Amino acid sequence: MQARLEAEHLFKVFGRRPDDAVERLRQGADREELRADGTTAAVIDASFRVEAGEIFVVMGLSGSGKSTLLRMLNGLLEPTAGSVRFDGDELTALGDRGLRELRSRKISMVFQHFALFPHRSVRENAAYGLEVQGVPRAERERRADEALALCGLAGWEESWPDELSGGMQQRVGLARALATDADLLLMDESFSALDPLIRRDMQDQLLELQKTLKKTIVFITHDLNEAMRLGDRIAVMRDGRIVQTGTAEDILLRPENDYVASFIQDVDRSRVLTAGAVMDTRPRGDEADCACETATPDTPFTELCAISARLSHPVAVLDADRTLVGVVPRQRLVGFLGDEQGEPAACDGSGKDGKKVTDRA
């Protein structure tokens, strides 16, 4: 099945002889070798797929290449090598006119620093993308007002940007992207300039909107907690390369290398994990004793702990048909909150060899 957005073996190199640099990277050269020659490899061999209606988060530290990667997804930067396809169409084959049309109608971008016009009202800012499309004034104002209402700004249409708080200004930026009814939203650290409480409010707003609008979103962040909270899937970048892609639970429970493992050390696992992630699916023989108070695979970890505290036996996890799919002993919950990384322990606290082990997340 065709993904909404596909990136295949993307490279972006700045400096002299970029094509030669790509070949050297393919043969095993690293960033430092190229930098010594005056060449910067911003993105190295990045491949991923984004499905329709998915929030795909790209996260990494400053300089990891995530913002450069984002700008290749809408044609603002041309890849040195590799391809980007949106709805099956190759972006590099569109030409300048085709790219402008794509960016005005199908792909919208929400920036970190709001990018509002100070001399335009909130309504006019929200309607700007529609103005670029040539939509008649009455229609674009109607659609802008609808988008502002979705973002919690009904009643502020005639205000000026400097009359709004930072969080409200970012809502205007989001409304501007939504007003065009674009198929793909690209969000470049859109909430990172906000205070922590406002930032969380914006995250809540985005998740609430996504329940209704089901947009395809690529979200860039350097904040792992934000990535874990928003992302259906997450790509972790380091030094221009994607080092792991997976769900929040995949990354928490199965980090692919020491770099990813170090990244997740301070994550609050209780806000991410669910019963489906921590349950033991192996037969125990006493499942019949677990049918008092139960959980589902989607039960949040904190709620699962509360259920476990009320029971004297493991929590039974049942699917939608009330079929037992796993059990969660109390010691397993304690283990998944530990700081060490590794494979989760068995329900009785023993590993495959019968020795006592520590649950690790």
UniProtKB/TrEMBL annotation:
SUPFAM superfamilies for the chain: P-loop containing nucleoside triphosphate hydrolases (SSF52540)
CDD domains: ABC_Pro_Gly_Betaine (cd03294)
One cellular component term from this protein's GO annotations in UniProt: membrane
Residue span, ABC transporter domain: 5-264
Keyword Transport included in the entry's annotation: yes
Keyword Transit peptide: no
Identification of the protein by name: Glycine/betaine ABC transporter ATP-binding protein
Organism of provenance: Streptomyces malaysiense
